[in-house]
Every structure is written in structure tokens, then in C-alpha cells.
Amino acid sequence: MQKIIVIGFPHTGTTILKSIIGHIDEVEEIIHEEKEIRQEDIDNASSNKKFIMCKWPFARDHYFDQAYQDYIKIFIIRNPLWIFSSLNKRCAKDDPPGIPPNHGIDTYIEVCKKFLYYQKNPTKNVHLIKYEDMFDDNYQVLKNLFNTIGFNYHNDIFNNSKYTNFSHRNITQVPNNIVDHTDHENFRTWQINQKFVNNNIPEKIDLLPEQITQILSSDDILNLYPELACVRM
Fold first, then answer.
1. In the chain, which ranges are continuous DSSP H helix?
2. What domain count does the chain have?
3. 231 — pLDDT class (breaks 50, 70, 90)
4. pTM of the model
5. Has residue 233 been placed in a domain?
6. Domain that holds residue 162
7. In a domain, 230, yes or no
8. pLDDT confidence of 192, banded at 50, 70, 90?
């Protein structure tokens, strides 16, 4: 079985992208976040599967090293205005409140640097996609990626109403209604079962002034999202 790992940064769309790929008949999806695919995962997979897939929300350096050379890496990035608005909402009621340091803008910038590197230096088995691009032209960019990898799929995989998606092992039922962000596992389960659409909606932007300043001061972010140079907030 060919191993696949979906990586990126928290709230870039790693979970929903993994769910969509998991709709493909020849892909064995590992539920929950896993840093690697173990032999027992392969042993427990359906025998007719060609691919086996896990996801981890951070694009760590070691995923691009020798230890993961036999993995297909799908690396997703997203506009930081929506990443950090989403993180602000999720972490507002934490104790202590606020975004954890390893989810901060400095860490996001390091992930941007990796994405930019592989844009300039294409590498076998490292496939890049921006969250925003997935939905354009009836998912054509995403289809191009799937065709490059060699998936055999049908267009129904993009229709979430035909599937039930789970992202955590201990969740076995999809909530009927939206739940609070603080109930992370149930909220994420509800979220990935909604219509597969671009959720970068202007009304959802809710950033602190210092976050805006840090985002707009990063050359790496502006290289990846040059349209942010025109942002006035």
C-alpha cells in the first residue's frame, strides 16, 4: 500500500482535505491525527485498498527527510487572515486564553517558508495546494492534484451529503446542529460534514491589531499571498 500523509498548519483544512480523499474507494483513511502510518495500520486495512492515509496538522521538517521518503506528502496552506481568526475563536475560552505558542504566527511563517521552498523546488511525492484554490472551477485544482497522484475517483467524493466523516476515534455520531468551538472534537466532526465549500468569508475575519501587523509585516506571507499587501483593516 502506498502511504500518504496530509500536512499543513492548524486550521488550514488538513482535516476536511483528508476526509474528501478518504471518500475515494481505494484509499484507507486512518481516523484521528497520526504522525505516521504504522505496520499495524497496514495490517488492519482492507485488502483491496491501494493507498493508506493519515494526517498531521503541522508540516514538520522531518516529513521531508529520509524517514518519510516512501510517503506521498500533500501539503496544504491557507490565508492567515482566516487561520488566526478561527484560532482566536477556538482558543478564546481556553485556560489560559489565547493561541498556544506552537500555533502562533511565527510558527505559521516557518510553514510558509517550507511551502515557498517546494513551490520553487518541486520534489517528487510533495504535492502543494492552497485551501482557497481547492474550490475553484468545480474543484479542478484539487482534481488535477488527485490525477497527478493517480487516484481513481468519481465526482461524488466532493459531495459530503453522500458520506459520514469522522476525525476523532471516540466520536461515533455527527452532531445534528453546530456545537460550540470549545467542544473541539464534536465541532470539528460537525464542520467536516457540512457542504464542501470555501469558508474564507470576510465576515469571519476577527483579528487583533498586533496579529494584523505581524501578518502584513512578513515577506514570506506576502510572497505566498501577495493580495494581502492591499489589505486595509
1. 14-22, 39-44, 80-91, 105-120, 136-149, 184-191, 209-216, 219-224
2. 1
3. confident
4. 0.95
5. no
6. 2-225
7. no
8. very high
In a domain, 110, yes or no: yes
Name the percent of the chain in helix, strand, coil, to the closest 5. 45, 10, 40
Burial tier of 144 (Cβ tally within 10 Å: 0-12, 13-18, 19+): middle
Q: What is the pLDDT of residues 126-173, one digit of tens each?
A: 999 999 999 999 999 999 999 999 999 999 999 999 999 999 888 889
Q: Which residue has the cell 496538522?
A: 57
Residue type, 116: L
β-pair partners for 29: 53
Locate 165 and state its grid cell.
466523516
For residue 81, which phi and psi values (nearest 5 degrees)?
-60, -40
**161 domain residue, yes or no:** yes
Q: Record the cell numbers describing residue 140, joined without a space.
A: 479542478
Per residue, what are the HEC states of 168-198? CCCCCCCCCCCCCCCCHHHHHHHHCCCCCCC
Q: What is the CATH number of the domain that holds 85?
A: 3.40.50.300
The cell numbers describing 61, all together, are 521538517
User: Which tens digits make up the pLDDT trace of 203-227?
Assistant: 999 999 999 999 999 999 999 999 9
Per-residue model confidence as pLDDT tens digits over 28-53: 999 999 999 999 999 999 989 999 99
Cβ atoms 72, 2 nearer than 8 A = yes
Helix ranges (H only) for 76-135 are: 80-91, 105-120
- Residues present in the chain in total: 233
